[in-house]
Amino acid sequence: MLQRYWFGDVDEEGCRPAGTDPAALAERATTLRTGMDSFVPIDWETARDCGAVRTREEYVGLLRSVCTALARKKIAQSYQGRDVELLQMVRMLDELDNVINLLQERAAEWYQVTNPSFSRKYRSLPAKKMLGIIRKGARGGLSDVADEIDRLAGTRSRLMRAVSARADEVMPNTSALIGGLVAARLLSRAGGLPTLAKMPGSTIQVIGSERALFSHLRGGTPPPKHGIIFQHRRVHNAPRPVRGRVARVLAAKLAIAARLDYYRGEAVPEFLKDAQARIDEAGVEA
Amino acid sequence: MMKWLGNVLVSAGEGGVYGERTLEGYRVWDPYRSKLAALYTLGGGVELTPEMRVLYLGAANGTTVSHVADYVETVYAVEFAPRPMQDLLEVARRRRNIVPIMADASRPEEYAPFMEAVDLLYQDVAQPNQVEIAERNLPFLKPGGHLILMLKTRSVDVRRDPAEVLAGARAGLERYLDVVDVRWLDPYHHDHAAIVCTLRE
Q1: Contacts for B176 with CB less than 8 Å, ≥ 6 apart
Q2: In which band, very low, low, confident or very high, does the pLDDT at B40 lie, cut at 50, 70 and 90?
Q3: For residues A44-52, average pLDDT
Q4: CB pairs A-B closer than 8 Å
Q5: Sequence-separated (6 or more) residues with CB below 8 Å from residue B147
Q6: Beta bridge partner(s), residue B116
Q7: Which of A101, A168, A255, B185 is disulfide-compatible with B189, CB 3.0–4.6 A?
Q8: Which of A79, A88, A263 is nearest to A171 (CA)?
Q9: Does A68 touch chain B (CB under 8 A)?
Q10: Which segments constitute the Nop domain (chain A) (predicted)?
Q11: DSSP B57
C-alpha cells in the first residue's frame, strides 16, 4: 500500500525520497492527499533508511523547517483578504469611541470643580460643545487634556470615513443595505467575511445581543428582536409593532448580501433593488 | 517524572516564553493559566517522560506547549487560527522539539503526512464536536497510549448541564478507549473537565 509522507513515497517496493530542500518539500506537501482509513503513521527510521535524513535530530529538524514554511505561507494567505484589515479598523474605531467618551466625561467633571457656578443642566450641551467650552475656559493640565481629546476626535472621524469607504469596497451589497459602518461592525462581530457569509439570517439578526439571546435560551425571557442591526435607521425608526419584522426581513436580506459579497465580490443591482423594496414593505404597518 | 518544588509544578527549560515566573531556575507552570497544569496539580494526568512523543491539538499561543516540550522528546503542535499560530511559530523557533502544524484538528488527513505514532494525544479545542475530533485523531495514537481530553462543556452546549455533557462525552469515548480518570478542574477552571483515557491494545 502506497503511503505518501512529507519526506517521500513509501510502498512495498521501497522508498522514493523527495529531496531535502524545505521549500520544495513544503510545496510537495500541499499536494498530498491522505485517506485516514489506509494511513500508517510514519516510522522515522523509514526516512533514515530512505536516505532523507541520517539521525533523529535531522529528521525532526527538517520536518520543523517544512512545517514552519507551510504555516508561514498559510498565515500570509489568511491575512491577504481585504476584510482582515477592515476588522481591525472597525474594532479600533469602537475602542476610540469608548476612550473619547470616558475622557470627555472625566474632563467635564474636572471643569465643573474649577467652576463652582457652572452646570450643564438646561443648557443641552453635547460633548463636542462642552469640550469647546473647556478648551477656552480651562488652563494647565485640563486644557492640555482637552486639546488631546479634540485631536483624538479628529482621528476618530477620519478613521470612520476610512472604515465606511473600505466597507463599501469589501462588502458592497451588505453596505448598500445597512451602511458601511454597521456592515463593518457585523463583520467584526462575525470575525471575517467568510464566517459572515456562512451565517444564517437568524444569527445575523441577533449578533450583538448575545446576553439577551442566551438569557432567552437558558430560561424563558423574551427573545431579542435585533442586535447591532438596530443601529440602522430602518430598524430603530420603524414603529414598535413592526420593528421585529423589519429586523427579520433585513437580516434575511443581509445574509444573502454577505454571500454575494464573499462569493461574487461586486454589487448586484437587481438583488439590491428587490431587497430594498422588500425591507421597505416590511416597515409598513398593516 | 513531573518536577515539583514544594507544591508548585515547574518545568526545566529556557524561560521568558510568556512572562512566566521562575523558581530556582525552573519555569513555574501555573494551574490557573494552563488546564494541563491544573490537572497535574489536582493529582491527575499522565506523567510526562523524556522519551514521549506528543500530539497536541489546539496549541493556541504555545504557552502550555512550551511546558510540555520541556518534558518530552517531540511535540506535534496543531493550531488552526493564524493569529495564535504567529506566536506558536516563535515558541517553536526557540524550542527545537516542537513541530508547529497549521491545520484543522477535525481534519487529520491534512497533517497525517507529517505524523508519526505518539504516546500521548492531548486535546484542548473549543469546538462542539470535541469527542468526534478526538476519535478522528486516534489513528496517530500508539496502542496503550493515552488521551487527555480537556472538555469545555460550555463549547459543547451552553444550554445543557455540564455534568450531563461530561457523561455524554465519556460514553462516546468509551467506545474505543478505556476511561482511566475523569475530574473537574475546579477551582482553577470552571465547567471544564479532564478525561484521561488509554487506547486498548
Answers
A1: B135, B138, B199, B200
A2: very high
A3: 91
A4: 76
A5: B120, B121, B122, B123, B134, B138, B141, B173, B177, B195, B196, B197, B198, B199
A6: A42
A7: B185
A8: A263
A9: yes
A10: 170-284
A11: E
Residue A130 has pLDDT above 90, yes or no: no
**First CA to last CA across chain B, in angstroms?**
24
A27: Cβ contacts below 8 Å, ≥ 6 apart: none
Distance to chain A for B145, nearest Cα, Å: 14
**Per-residue b or e along A227-252, where b marks 16 or more CB atoms closer than 10 Å to that residue's CB:** bbbbbbebbeebeeeebbbbbbbbbb
Among A40-54, A125-139, A211-225, B52-66, which stretch is predicted with the lowest mean pLDDT? A125-139
Question: Nearest C-alpha of chain B: how many angstroms from A241?
Answer: 30
Q: How far apart are CA B64 and CA B188, in angstroms?
A: 15
- Give, as one character, the DSSP assignment of residue B186: T
Helix (H, G, I), strand (E, B) or coil at B201: coil
CB atoms within 10 A of CB B141: 23
Contacting residues of B for A71, CB less than 8 Å apart: 85, 89, 100-102
Residue A32 touches partner B, C-beta closer than 8 Å: yes
Mean pLDDT computed over A117-146: 80
Residue A282, CA distances (Å) to A174, A238, A247 in order: 18, 9, 9
For residue A286, the model assigns a pLDDT of 65
Report the pLDDT value the prediction gives residue B185, as an integer from 0 to 100: 96
Distance from CA of B47 to the nearest CA of A (A): 23
Decide if pLDDT at A172 tops 70.
yes
Q: How many degrees, rounded to 5, is the angle at CA A97 between CA A225 and CA A79?
A: 85
Average pLDDT estimate for B115-120? 96
Using CA atoms, how far residue A137 sits from A109, A112, A146, A186, in Å, is 14, 11, 11, 41
Contacts of residue A169, defined as CB under 8 A and 6 or more positions apart, other chains included, come to A82
- Beta bridge partners, B99, equal B76
Does A68 contact B136 at a Cβ distance shorter than 8 Å?
Answer: no
Task: Kindly determine whether residue B92 and residue A41, on different chains, have CB atoms separated by under 8 Å.
Answer: no
Nearest CA in chain A to B84: A75
User: Is the distance from CB of A224 to CB of A242 less than 8 angstroms?
Assistant: no
> E strands of B98-170, at which residues?
98-102, 118-123, 141-152
How large is the average pLDDT for residues A128-146? 84
> Which ipTM did the prediction report?
0.94
